[in-house]
Amino acid sequence: MPARQRGFARKRPSGWLAGWYVDGRQVARGGFRTRTEALDYANEKATVAATRSNAIRFGDPIPQAASDVSTVSTVSQLIDAFLARHDVDPATIKKLRSQLGHARRAFGDRDIASLTAVELDVWRATLPERSRHYMFRAARQVFEYGVTMKVIDTNPTARIRNRRAAVDRRQIHPFESWEQVQAVCEELDPRCAAIPIVLVGTGLRPEELFGLDRRDVDLDAGVLTVERVFTQGVLKDCKKSTRQRRRVPLRGRVVEAIRAMPTRIDTPVLFPAPRGGRIDLERFRYREWAPALRAAGISHRRVYDCRHTFASWAIAGGMSLFHLSRIMGTSTTMIGDVYAHLLPDSEEYLRGLLDAYDGVRGLTVDSAGH
């Protein structure tokens, strides 16, 4: 049977499936966001398979795949080998491929052994500030893989400090009141109208909200369970060891908003797209969210600012950082760094707590300060 030169793509409920043939046997991989992405991947794999098959048929030397670690010498080849063997979901591979694109463009044709720590540290400083930590971390993973596979003796990035970018609190814009949130809801399609209330009322990340099924929400008990996320077109289960898997209490306003949602029996998804699948966050941002803010006369806020709103209001209400971190699925350190100073009256609030404690204990202060 002649080798197939092109791959194919098929639609699946969770995304697009890429397929190709290897020696007459069909091979497939799912999790692609668009048909174009699936076809590009399938065609690339089909071309490699056909080239190797033809070489075997005609007795020519068999070309080595870029993922064959024994032939790796350049940075691009090491990146390809790492991505080919990194056992994670397609969404993570897609993110890593994007992050590693910077290293590929800067050093792709370079011999791995020729790289020095100095030039890698200088290169790190040229990366976008907000994404620098993650791009450099991905490159470090690749070089560490090279050490493990004995392609290089040492990791040239090993002793380079890779600090996270400091949080710019000027880019955090919580809503000022429930009235503002409700104004946005009224400008959204009825099928999406409860989304701002649920996000602000629970502190969920958008990808967690869009990963929810109706079975994850117990309105009678007033709690929802975060079991999975929907990101980059792929539905992913939360790892059991992560803080992201958690139970979140539902305030009465959230319960009422979910109960008022239009009933759909054609999909198990809590907030489905018009055809019953899951909502794509990027499309929701520019098709629904941004127009609703403009129509409501509210200055632009990111969807993620709903999470910031939940945190700032919870702190103002007296919730401890420990409980807040449990509800939001993150660490107390992150809560303290990002959210504890969101409200301008946070110092006044804390001062009031201290004074109230002193009053209960009878620790009064006289006019002389004693």
Write the layout of secondary structure elements.
Blueprint: E1 8-12, E2 15-22, E3 25-32, H1 35-58, H2 75-85, H3 90-107, H4 117-125, H5 132-148, H6 178-187, H7 195-202, H8 206-209, E4 217-218, E5 223-226, E6 228-231, E7 234-237, E8 246-249, H9 252-259, H10 281-296, H11 305-316, H12 321-328, H13 332-338, H14 346-361
Antiparallel strand pairs: 1-2, 2-3, 4-5, 5-8, 6-7
Helix pairs in contact: 2-3, 3-5, 6-7, 6-10, 7-9, 7-11, 12-13
Structural class: mainly alpha
Radius of gyration: 26 Å
- SSE order in H/E notation? EEEHHHHHHHHEEEEEHHHHHH
CATH topology of the largest domain: hpI Integrase, Chain A
Widest beta sheet: strand line-up? 1-2-3
By CATH, the architecture of the largest domain is named Orthogonal Bundle
Percent of sequence in beta strands: 5-15%
Précis, in short:
The protein has 370 residues and is mainly alpha-helical. The chain has helices at residues 35-58, 75-85, 90-107, 117-125, 132-148, 178-187, 195-202, 206-209, 252-259, 281-296, 305-316, 321-328, 332-338, 346-361; strands at 8-12, 15-22, 25-32, 217-218, 223-226, 228-231, 234-237, 246-249.
